[in-house]
Amino acid sequence: MSLFVPPAAMDPIERATTYPYHIPDHAFVFEHGRWHGADTARIAGLMRGRTPVIACGSNRSPEQLARKYADFAEVVIPVERAWLDDFDVVFAAHITGYGSIAANLQHVPGARVEVSITWLSDELMERMHATEGRGADYDYARLDGLTLKTEHGETRDTAFAYVYRQGSLAVSGDHAGLHEILAENRPHRSMRQREVLDHVRERIGRACALEDFIHETIADEGLRLAREALLQEDAIPFRWKHWSAVD
């Protein structure tokens, strides 16, 4: 499956540095290019026949969903807010095609992190697979043994997620959490997107303005992949034992 990078009207620097974009602090329904809050009954009715997929980065944002499904005539996606025990949302050792350092789930005992559950139909799942680079960049995985608590009081022990194959970014030998994502008992540092991009620029040894570094990265795929490969030399593997890739 070829990677689909959704086009955007945003300034490329803004797109790279404002990841993971605006995330509502409550459940919502993304519908026909817009989003609105929704109560438990509305969400529950839309969940039937769909797959629960944990979103930890920009897939939590209506803004990103609007880009990914801009060419679909009709899109309805219920999105629940939830807390996931013993995990954190950290940076992946991955530079996206639009220049951001992506998010990745990671098992972190004792931590607790806010995520979303996107309920996807088969048709919508195919596009999501394409935007995540399933089978090349990410594994589409089933996670078992979870403690995943929604804001409506339901607890789930199984869900699906995209797990970056090459692991999480190491910053001074440890993870770095996304500052924009709420977490409790995070034992490592957190960083904003501009901060982690600047860290990557310095690590690669490129002495230039951050804006120039971003423009270079998104303009040349070969250069982006070479820079990404340097980040993967000491990347931290996914540590949750109760998972399996879905064929």
Give structural notes:
With about 250 residues, the protein is of the alpha+beta class. The chain has one domain (about 10-235): Gamma-glutamyl cyclotransferase-like (Hypothetical upf0131 protein ytfp), CATH 3.10.490. The protein has helices at about 10-15, 40-45, 60-70, 120-130, 195-205, 210-220, 220-230, and strands spanning about 30, 35, 50-55, 75-95, 100-120, 140-145, 150, 155, 160-165, 175-180, 185, 190, 245. Strands 1, 2, 3, 4, 5, 7, 8 and 11 form an eight-stranded antiparallel beta sheet that branches. Strands 9-6-13 form a three-stranded antiparallel beta sheet, with no helix packed on it. It has a two-stranded parallel ribbon with strand order 10-12. A hairpin with a 2-residue loop joins strand 1 and strand 2 (about 35). The longest helix is centred in the C-terminal third of the chain and has 12 residues, at about 195-205. The model has no long low-confidence stretch (mean pLDDT about 95).
